[in-house]
Amino acid sequence: MAETWFLNREAIRDLSTLGGLAFRAVKNSEEEQSRVNPIPMDYTVLNKLRLEGKLCDVVIEVEGTKFQAHKAILCACSPYFRTLFTDTCDSAGRQEYSILGVRPDVMRLFIEHIYEHTLTVTEDNVTPLLKAAKEFSFLGVAQACIDFLKAQLCPKNCIGIWNAAESQLCPDLRHCAFRFILHNFEEVGRSSAEFLDLSLTQLCDIIGDDELNVRQEDVVFDLLLRWIEHSPSEREPCISALLPQVRLAFLDPDYFLHNIMENPLVKENSECWPMVVNARRFLQTRLVTRVFSSSPHHCPRLPNSVLLAIGGWSDRSPTNTVESYDVRANCWVNVTQEQESPRAYHGAVYLKGFVYCIGGRNEVEFFSSVRRFDPLTLTWHEAAPMHLRRCYVSAVALDGWIYAMGGFDGHIGHSSAERYEPDTNQWSLIQPMHEHRSDASATTLDGKIYICGGFNGEECISTAECYSPQTDQWTMITPMGSRRSGLGVIAYGKEVYVVGGFDGITRLRSVGAYNPLTNSWRLVPSAPSTCSNFGIALLEDRLFTVGGLETFNTADCAQCYDRKTGQWSKVERMVFARGALSCCVVMGLPNTTQYAAPRDSKS
Fold this sequence. Notes:
The protein is of the alpha+beta class. Helix content is 29%, strand content 24%. The chain is globular, with a radius of gyration of 33 Å.
């Protein structure tokens, strides 16, 4: 086959060179072919030709709107068009094709995407765009639509997206939307108009799922009734299918008596009443036996969030113990990975899917090291170490960064602070605090870091300060009402709570709350027991304290405070007594069962 060469004057001066080039090209054709980069396609030129109607050999007609294009270009981009243009007997001479079921604006987006490599997805076009992308086999466009819909999920539209994913055969999007419904069920059920249009099968699938996230089971029955009341004559008989999906044995006893047993729909339904009688019997014995069965009535749902209690000092030595608290079953599960080394007086934060254990100490060494735990695989890995050794460190996560402040290196206490960027695996120093602080505690609120109390090398202190990442500056705030080291600090509502600690003489059970707007403190009901160096975390809008150091022992107790009621209550004790531990909350895990109590045996 003849080839045409286009050469300039300099290239043809030496014919021997040209001959040599030609010879090598023939002799080593396979080798040379592999070395030559493909000629780049200039889509700007192709798009200009399309817009000018030049060399176009096909017209796509959609609802009266016509789009000129090039068959070869469309065939190269889509199996749909390749089949359309080649699998008919008149395809060679045919120039115009009508396509049904696609909006003109959507077809324009596809044509522009092919020629200009651009795509604008909006709330208005995403559904028809996804439908057409699936039909035309444009996988990249379909994925862009799916990603857009995932990002748009909210309580008011998640059911509609779930339905769209089902109709468009998008299993990943369907799974994502369904999990969103489960994890935000109460808000979805109360605020979404789409909730009232669910089919019976869909509602059963939702409320029967173990991952349904409700703090109180009575929410499920209340929303079930709301769905029925939307169309009572048609839906009242559905109570017999819906009631088995409610975890009846985990309802509040008073609610069960007045809202279930006395409900006319339940009482008058012959299929429902035996379930109620059986659930009442189990409800009376559950708190004593704590037996969970495979029956939906008698099995607590899986928690959406779990509290992890990590490391600490147990008996006379540090430990590597990790326990998770199952708030639905009110019990602790040992998830310790034995290969991990012991660590106490450290910090723990959850960020971007990982738990970071920062600083601390073992029996002989003070750490600058950082360990990263992957809750999906239950494995530990090393992260970059801090600039300084920091035992008794205060650690928080804010805006994608981890901050480590103060601490003790075995010789001196620190006023310095540093922050870690997970994407680069690097620590950088920030402005130091006004005071040396070890055994302090910190939290974040409204984009700022608050650190309170601690030990300055001479005494326990009552001072507190606030850090602004925007200005890289620390500001002293009103001191606490008492000296506290080994305290717990956490943002709760719009206030900063300080709990317990040690004042240099005794361990405390007093609690205070700081209001940043007024720069003032107020007293909060005291904790049930005196303690220091406990874990503290916020779980389902309740403040939990876990373990700690008592006067002579390490503690295994756990308790929680509800600001709505102003009451403290005890929760199940940990399996292992520990102080100097650290806690954090992990949510939305696909493998929650590994952190939850077994649902078919005694826990």
